[in-house]
Structures are given as structure tokens and as C-alpha cells.
Design goal:
Layout lengths: L3 E2 L43 H6 L14 E7 L5 E7 L1 H5 L3 E5 L19 E2 L5 E7 L2 H8 L3 E6 L29 E5 L2 H7 L2 E9 L11 E7 L2 E6 L4 H12 L6 E4 L15 H13 L3 E4 L2 H7 L6 E9 L5 E13 L9 H5 L6 E9 L13 H19 L3 H7 L17 H12 L2 H4 L10 E12 L8 E7 L4 E5 L8 H13 L6 E4 L17 H28 L7 E3 L2 E3 L4 E3 H8 L3 E7 L11 E12 L5 E11 L6 H20 L5 E2 L4 E2 L17 E5 L24 H13 L10 H15 L1
Parallel strand pairs: 2-13, 11-12, 15-16, 19-20, 26-29
Antiparallel strand pairs: 1-8, 2-6, 3-5, 3-7, 4-6, 8-16, 9-14, 10-11, 10-13, 14-15, 17-25, 18-19, 18-24, 21-22, 22-23, 25-26, 27-28
Helix pairs in contact: 9-17, 13-14, 14-15, 16-17
């Protein structure tokens, strides 16, 4: 292969930098280059912490509007079917039922390419058939059983490889593969490199489909005031939802207000507009009353996204002097019934300096719920496979794994040749290895430990985008009494956005945190804020807030100079005061001198630097204990060493790392959507059968952050931290299990039965 025939959604990764270079660049505010300020870098308490722990925080579901109705969706019981006839008369006759919307009486709204909001072609068990609106949720649930639907049941397929067979059903007009054909990427000449290598390893890997399962379910409360729609929603993008709703409903975006004041997690499943919100909006408009729709846990597991599975066949080649010469992957991922993205190969393309790379990937349609972005989409799956073949290749070459990684660090993007704004991966490797005690691993033969409980150490590397960029704005207002309000069109999904905006403005204006209030999660009266996804919120929003604060300082100096009739050059600003040669003015006094009721400035995120790529890098080191008699794996310790730019709030940063690492442990050891392939139905659509980590599974976690104020990236030197911690976790655990047992685990999750089967298989081979 030569050249590239590959297009993918790069919103959250390096190639998207091009879209963040504004046609008319915004002049950036002066950078904050000191490593720690008075407020930034401090572990201040969460702005919304008290309300979260006391139960006084208002979530979408808490919006109990007068005369509100409840809605529930009727979902397909079949994995593949067409609606021949639907009769909702009995449901509509039930006392309390206000309406039943379906394809026969609702507007014809396009959805995914060749599908509709209310479609007669149902492509998975859980696909929406109708919406029942009633006086209460109980009445709506009862009415679901009274809607009579006559189905034409069609053949289905829920297995990845079988779904590509000519005998499998075609779910869309483009065929069995999304895009109609495989996606490919290539550079160099792979085959000659494989033939001339001193060592080549080849191995196949599989990872299971995982489900987001945030604490707060998807829910929407909607109402119309004349022609204006208000939507309370648990969303990771208030502006994105507003804009997509406007497109679906064919009304101006200015006629829609979306509000998300508090949120109980999303992890990517709430980045997209879901059908239930549009259906509720239609019902509310028809009935003239507010409508509330709340998905239950089963619906959360079926209908609003997942991390797609993966099947990966990898080859890696290198020379005795420790140079990677070729990386090849042939991969498959199941996107489900509707377009998504199961690509997981970008780490292989860019993580290591390798001249010869070949990628072939297939996004496969099947009769299961659609995939969605899930905390570093594709990267955890790809890194799990990539860093295991790196570990295995190092062993084949007689080189320490860490040394092989260090020798092949890429100095620029391997996809484009573009240099990075900064990269401190070398320091991450050194400090992480020292903290975990990597030197003790070098002389340990895999599986050589005495007794049935064996310990091992493993590592894996990560690369991610997280650079953020425009458009993004933050408005800061100084009131007449000297208090300050921060307003932004972003949203806090639990990561601490309220807090870091408060800290940034406090740093810029040099005023106490308690004098600053913050409002986010509302499209009305706020400048645009991007999606909270891809680790882009902090590096997009805090530079804008910093700019607004500095602009206000300059406006205060100019205003006081004019109002007090003193030379501008005689004034300075420090510690929340305008200072003159004979008099100082507090913010409140300055506002009075200026005769201002409110002083307002909106800071905008400047364009990213041209000819540079913003990425985060890191390495995770893990120690595990494997009970070879039971197959149980215990993660004892994780050292996460990451280059993520400026630390805004150490406590919040560690929270993000702990959460990401725990999700990585879940992916590695227990999380798996279980499907009955014969019936085409999910068997684990609840929190009992879908296992996730709990506090008892939490290891000791140490977070190491090299000092790196990347002011080439933005004026605060910030990069995102949401995704990096999960990316290398499963791969590092798998390598540690190999070090402990001498057996390579290639299937996720690494459940006790799979561990025992792998150990038994290794014993059979050794005989």
C-alpha cells in the first residue's frame, strides 16, 4: 500500500488543529508563564461541591414544571423488523394518556442518512417505535403495552465477522460496511520492512463492547412558549444540542434555549442529540404542555451508545538496535445499527516513530444499538493491542520494553510530519518507571514468581489531542458593588468546569474566589461554548476566561483614568485594586468613579498556532497480582505519568485520573455487553449483570505531572486531562499480567475464566 485513502472524524485529535486556525485570528491575551499562581494550580474546593454532596444541586430530572406530562418510548422487541401496521387506539383510550406519536401521525424527520425519527425499518432490539405521553410515567408505561404493532420480522446478525457475510442482512443502502468499503492508511513500504526485520511478532486481539452507564440517566424536560422551545437536558453540549434541534425541527436556533445546570456524568454518550428529546419536543408542541422523558437503565444500555468492540490483527517488526521498522493492523469494529465510528488505530499511526505503517479498518453494521464516543473513542482498544505487541517485540529483540519505547518516541506527528507544540514523554517514562520500580522487572523472567499468587509490572504509552481551540468565549462582568459574574456557554459534566473558570478569573483579576459567581450550561445570554468532549473544555474555555479578565483590567485602568481625571500611565493594577500615586480604588470604588453599573468583556479563545499540533502524552505503569488458581487479577498500584500542560487544580486533576483509571480497570477486567446472538438481544442491560468497578477494586494511584506550561498551545499552557488516564490502562494491565504469568491475554475483559483458560492453554503447549 502507498499513500492514504482515509477520512475520519478528527474533532478530538491532532488533525483537527487545522479547523481551529481561525480565518481571522483572535489576538491572544498575554500568556501566564509562571508555573503556579495565587489561585491557578491550587487544590481549591469545587465551586459546586456543597450542592452536589448535600443534594441541593438541581439536575434536569428535578425540573418539576407545572402541568408537565411524562413520556415513555415504545421500543422494538425484535433485532430486525419492519412495521406493517400500528394501532394506538387502545393506548389513547386509557385514562391519562394524552397522545401516542408514531410514524403514522408524526412529522417525517430525517435521522441517520437513510433512516427517520419514527422509522418503519427497525434495526435493533430497542429501536424507537412510538412515544406515549401521559399524565404520569406509570400511566405512560402501562399504555406501552396497549399499542398494537404488527411486525414483519427480518433476519438479523449481531456478530461482527458474520455481519459482513453476503448472507447477512443489509441495514443501510451503502451496504454492510459504513462508508461501503474499508478505511485505509499507509506510509512507507511495509512488506520489505517485514522481510528484512530481525524480529516480527504477529498477534490478534479482541475487546468487548462497553456501555457508558453514567450515574444520571438521559433525560429531557421540554416546553414551548409560543414559538420558542426551552429544553432542560443532561447534555455534554448545550449549543450543539440547540443547533441540531434547530436542524431537526426546522426552526431558527435563536428560537431554542437549552439548559444543563448540573450533570451526573456522560463519558461521551451525551455528546449527541438522542431521539427521545426530539420526540418530546414534538409532543410538547402538539399538546401545549411541558413534557418530561427519562430513560431507565435498560434503555441506557440499549439505545444511547456504547464503546464498540474490536477485532485487531497486528504485526510489528524491529531491528536488534531497537528500531521499529513496521506496524501493520487489520481491524474490525461493530458500529451497530446506525453510523458511528469504531476506528481504533490512530495510536498505531502516530504513537511511535515508525517509517512503514499499514492500516485497514472496517466499521461493521449489525443489529445492535449504535456506538458513540466513549472517553477517548477508539484509543483504549487500539492501545491495548499496540502496546502488547510492542512489549512482545521488545522481548523478541532482547530489549527492555521501556527502552524500546524511549528509542522510538516520535518527535513530530507521524501522520503529517507536523511538530508538536511540546512533548515531555521522555520525562514521563523516566519518572513513572522510577516510581513503579521498573528496574526490578528487567531481571524477572515472566511467570517465574513462586507460589500461585504471582505479581507483575507492565506499562503502556498514550497519545491524545486535548488541545481545544476556537470558537469559545467567556463573558466576565464586574457589577457596581465589585462582585464578579462569569458566564459561559459550556457545561460542567462533573469535571470541575465551574471551578476552573472561577480560578482563572480570580487569577486574572487578582480577587478572592468567593467574590466570583459562575453560570454555565445555558445557551441564553452566553457566548458559544464547545462540546464537553475530547478533553477540549479546559484548553478552550480557560484561555478565553483569562483573556476576558485581562481585558477588564485594562478597561478598569482606562475608566478610572478618565473618571478620576488622572494620567493613565500613573495607574497600575494589583490585588484587585486600581492603584494611583495618591489613591487606590477597589473594584466597587472603581465602578463608582467610572459611573458604571456593569463592566463587561467577552474573552475569545485565540486560534491555535499554525504549523503545530497540540497533543498530550503519557505512560501508565501498573503492578498486578494474579491468582493462578482462581484466575482473579488484582490491580495493586497504578503510576500515571502524563504531560498535560499546566495543572489548573491538582485535586480536580487527580479526580479525573482516578475516574479514568477506574474505567480502564473496568474495561480490562470486567465490563462487557453480553448478547444472545440467536435472539439478537442484550442480556446485560442492567447494573446487576453489567459489572463495573467499585471502591473495593480501587488500587493505589500515583499521578505524576511534569511541569510544562505549553504557551505555544494557548495563553495558559493548558491541555485536557479527561481522556489520557483511560487510554493506556488496559494495555498496561495486560502487560503486567504477562509479566506475572508468562501468558499473553489477548481478549478483554480478562475475566477469571479467561485467565484460567489461557493458563491451561499455556500448560498444554508446554507439554
Amino acid at each position: 500500500m502507498s499513500g492514504t485513502r482515509f477520512i475520519r472524524d478528527q474533532r478530538f485529535f491532532e488533525e483537527d488543529n487545522a479547523s481551529y486556525v481561525a480565518e481571522v485570528p483572535v489576538e491572544d491575551a498575554p500568556a501566564l508563564e509562571t508555573s503556579e499562581g495565587k489561585f491557578l494550580g491550587k487544590s481549591v474546593e469545587r465551586y459546586d461541591g456543597y450542592h452536589k454532596v448535600s443534594g441541593t444541586a438541581l439536575y434536569t430530572i428535578d425540573r418539576q414544571l407545572k402541568h408537565a406530562l411524562a413520556a415513555r418510548a415504545l421500543r422494538s422487541p425484535h433485532p430486525h423488523a419492519k412495521i406493517k401496521k400500528i394501532d394506538s387506539s387502545k393506548a389513547e383510550a386509557l385514562e391519562g394518556v394524552m397522545a401516542v406519536l408514531h410514524h403514522g401521525n408524526a412529522p417525517d424527520i430525517p435521522w441517520h442518512r437513510d433512516s427517520k425519527l419514527f422509522d418503519t425499518h427497525l434495526r435493533y432490539a430497542g429501536d424507537e417505535v412510538a412515544l406515549v405521553v401521559a399524565s404520569t410515567a406509570d400511566v405512560a408505561t402501562e399504555a406501552l403495552n396497549l399499542v398494537h404493532v404488527e411486525y414483519e420480522v427480518l433476519p438479523h446478525e449481531t456478530r461482527t465477522m458474520e455481519a459482513m457475510d453476503d448472507r447477512a442482512p443489509e441495514l443501510h443502502d451503502e451496504g454492510r460496511l459504513q462508508g461501503g468499503e474499508p478505511a485505509t492508511y499507509a506510509r512507507g513500504e511495509v512488506e520489505p520492512a517485514l522481510e528484512s526485520a530481525d524480529a516480527v511478532v504477529s498477534r490478534s486481539f479482541t475487546t468487548a463492547t462497553c456501555v457508558h452507564n453514567p450515574t444520571e440517566p438521559h433525560n429531557s424536560v421540554v416546553f414551548w412558549d409560543d414559538d420558542r422551545l426551552t429544553v432542560y437536558d443532561s447534555t455534554q453540549g448545550v449549543f450543539a444540542m440547540r443547533n441540531t434541534l434547530a436542524e431537526k425541527l426546522q426552526i431558527p436556533a435563536s428560537s431554542i434555549r437549552v439548559i444543563c445546570p448540573a450533570m451526573g456524568g456522560g463519558f461521551g454518550c451525551k455528546l449527541e442529540l438522542s431521539k427521545h428529546t426530539v420526540m418530546a419536543a414534538l409532543a410538547a408542541r402538539q399538546l401545549g404542555r411541558p413534557v418530561s422523558v427519562v430513560l431507565d437503565r435498560r434503555e441506557m444500555n440499549l439505545a444511547v451508545g456504547n464503546r464498540p468492540n474490536s477485532i485487531q490483527h497486528l504485526r510489528a517488526a524491529g531491528t536488534r538496535d531497537g528500531q521499529l521498522t513496521a506496524l501493520v493492523t487489520d481491524s474490525y469494529g461493530m458500529v451497530g445499527a446506525y453510523p458511528s465510528n469504531a476506528w481504533m488505530n490512530w495510536p498505531l499511526v502516530v504513537m511511535y516513530q515508525c517509517p512503514n505503517v499499514s492500516v485497514t479498518h472496517r466499521n461493521v453494521y449489525s443489529n445492535l444499538g449504535p456506538g458513540r464516543a466513549f472517553r477517548a473513542p477508539g484509543f483504549p482498544q487500539g492501545t491495548f493491542a499496540l502496546d502488547q505487541v510492542i512489549d512482545e517485540l521488545a522481548e523478541a529483540l532482547g530489549i527492555d520494553t521501556l527502552e524500546l519505547c524511549q528509542r522510538n518516541m516520535a518527535t513530530a506527528s507521524q501522520a503529517s510530519g507536523t511538530p508538536y507544540t511540546s512533548k515531555k514523554l521522555a520525562e514521563c517514562y523516566e519518572r513513572g518507571a522510577e516510581a513503579i520500580g521498573w528496574s526490578t522487572r528487567r531481571n524477572r523472567e515472566p511467570g517465574s514468581g513462586a507460589g500461585p499468587r504471582k505479581r507483575g509490572i507492565g506499562m503502556a504509552s498514550q497519545v491524545w489531542g486535548g488541545g481545544g481551540g476556537p470558537p469559545a468565549g467567556v463573558t466576565v462582568m464586574i457589577q457596581r458593588d465589585g462582585s464578579v459574574q462569569v458566564v459561559s456557554g459550556t457545561q460542567d459534566i462533573g469535571t470541575g468546569t465551574f471551578t476552573i473558570l472561577q480560578q482563572t478569573v480570580a487569577e486574572a483579576l487578582e480577587i478572592p474566589l468567593e467574590s466570583i459567581s459562575v453560570r454555565v450550561g445555558d445557551t441564553d445570554g452566553a457566548p458559544y461554548g464547545p462540546l464537553s468532549g475530547g478533553s477540549q473544555t479546559a484548553p478552550s474555555m480557560t484561555p478565553a476566561a483569562w483573556s476576558a479578565g485581562l481585558e477588564l483590567k485594562q478597561a478598569l485602568l482606562q475608566g478610572v483614568a478618565a473618571g478620576a481625571e488622572v494620567p493613565l500611565e500613573s495607574l497600575s493594577y494589583a490585588d484587585g485594586e486600581v492603584r494611583g500615586t495618591e489613591q487606590n480604588w477597589s473594584l466597587a470604588e472603581a465602578m463608582q468613579v467610572m459611573r458604571e453599573q456593569t463592566l463587561v468583556r467577552t474573552g475569545l479563545r485565540a486560534a491555535n498556532a499554525e504549523g503545530k499540533i497540540i497533543c498530550s502524552f503519557g505512560a501508565q505503569f501498573v503492578e498486578v497480582e494474579v491468582d493462578t488458581e482462581t484466575g482473579r487479577i488484582d490491580v495493586l498500584r497504578v503510576v500515571a505519568a502524563h504531560d498535560i500542560g499546566r495543572v489548573l487544580n491538582r485535586r480536580l486533576l487527580e479526580n479525573q485520573f482516578e475516574g479514568g483509571i477506574m474505567q480502564g480497570i473496568g474495561m480490562a477486567l470486567m465490563e462487557e455487553r453480553v448478547v444472545d446472538d440467536v435472539e439478537g438481544k442484550v442480556l446485560s442491560a442492567n447494573l446487576l449483570d453489567y459489572r463495573m468497578p467499585v471502591m473495593a477494586n480501587t488500587p493505589e494511584i500515583e499521578v505524576i505531572i511534569p511541569e510544562n506550561i505549553d504557551t505555544v498551545a494557548n495563553n495558559l499552557g493548558v491541555k485536557g486531562v479527561g481522556e489520557p488516564p483511560i487510554i493506556p490502562t488496559a494495555g498496561a494491565i495486560a502487560n503486567a499480567v504477562y509479566n506475572a504469568t508468562g501468558v499473553r491475554m489477548t481478549e478483554l475483559p480478562m475475566t477469571p475464566d479467561r485467565v484460567l483458560m489461557a493458563l491451561l492453554g499455556a500448560e498444554e503447549v508446554s507439554r
